[in-house]
Design a protein that fits this description.
The two termini are about 30 Å apart. With about 300 residues, the protein is of the alpha/beta class. The chain is built from 14 helices and nine strands.
Amino acid sequence: MTTVGFIGLGSMGMPMANNLLAKGFAVQGFDVRGDSVAALASRGARTAASAAAAAAGADALVLMVVNAAQAEQALFADGALEALPDGSAVILMATCPPGAVAALAARVEAAGRRFVDAPVSGGVVGAVAGTLSIMAAAPAAVVERLRPVLAAMGDKVFHVGERPGQGATVKTVNQLLCGVHIAVVAEAFALAAKVGVDLDILLEIMSGSAASSWMLKDRGPRMLQADPGITSAVDIFVKDLGIVLEAGRDTKAALPLAAVAHQMFLAASGRGEGAMDDSQVIRSYHALNGTGQAAEPIGNPGQTG
C-alpha cells in the first residue's frame, strides 16, 4: 500500500488526506473545487484533474464525499472505478444509508475491486489530529490489508463486521445517539429558561451530576452563546438523522425519539439556520416556547457535510 487516491477534500477530507501524506503515502487528490486540489498539491500530493485521475494506479481509493449519490457519481459516472486497478480497494468513509452502501459495494465487487465500508466519527477536530474512530466493515483480510491506510487517518480502527453496510449501521447508531443527546439538552435548557433559571448555573450543576453527558459538556456552553463557532452544522444532523430514519424504515425499527429530534433540527434549518452550529437547534425550542434571543437567519445555507 503506497498510493492512495482521495476524492472529497472538504473540511474533513482535507486534513485526512494531509495525514496520509504525513504518514508517507503518495496521495493523488481530487475535489470539484480546484483550490482544494491546489492546496493539497502544495503539501506534496499529486494533482488529479478528475475522479478517474485520482483513482488511476492507486492501491486504495478513499471517498470522503457528501453522500451516497456523490460516491456513485464519482465511481461510475466519472470513471473512478474503471480507472482503479483490478484488486485495489474502494474505502467509503462518508456517512451514508446502510442499504445504499451495500448496493454500492455489490457493484464495486462485481467489477473486481474490493470495498470497505468505513465511516468515521470525531468531526473536524479528529480529522485534523488523526484521532478519528473508524468503523470498518469488510472481510477481515481486506481490513487488515488496508489497516495502515486507515490508521493514518484514525487512531481507533474497529472491525465491526464482514459485510458492507454494517459499518454504516454502526455510524447510524452513533448519529442517532448524538442527535438525540443534543436535542434533549436543548429541550432541558428550554424548560429551565421558561421559568427564568440561569442557564450558566444550570449547565454547571448538570455537568457534575448524573444527568451529565459528553454532548451536554460540549454543546451546552455553545447553546448559551448567541453565535458560536461552527464545529458541526445543523444541516449535518438534518441529513444524518434522515439517514437514521431511513435505516429504521428499512429494518422496520421504530425510532420515535430520533424522529422528534430530526424535526427540531429540520425546523432550525427551515428558518435559515442550517449552516449554524448544531447546538443552535436550541433556537427551535426557543421559538416554540417564546424564550431566548433568536438571531437573524444567516441566509440560504449551502450543502454542509
